[in-house]
Amino acid sequence: MEDEELIDCECHGKSLPAMVCEHLIVHQDQPAGFIENSNVPENLQAWCNACEALYNIEESLTEKFIAFNNMSIVCSKCYQDIKRKNLIAL
Questions:
Q1: Could you report the per-residue pLDDT of 8-41, keeping only the tens digit for each?
Q2: Structural domain spans, the chain
Q3: Cα–chain-centroid distance for residue 23?
Q4: Which uninterrupted H or E stretch holds 90?
Q5: How far apart are alpha carbons 21 and 76 in whole angstroms?
Q6: Residue 46: alpha-carbon gap to chain centroid
């Protein structure tokens, strides 16, 4: 794996990058839901239930959706931590 493909995380060191919506990063009292947007292990992307609802209304990555979503880059280990904290049991 090329070093330039990795990001340097304060908590986890060098790791693959991942993308999540800002709602999954901010502290919250309850899980926000976790919708993964890719089945490719090297392409980790996710957003919360609120983003999923707006995406379904907008039907695409509109300017309104992108502004609401405000994607952020995190390391793949942080991504897994965020996923564990935000999964909602059915």
A1: 999 999 999 999 999 999 877 899 999 999 888 7
A2: 3-86
A3: 9
A4: none
A5: 14
A6: 4
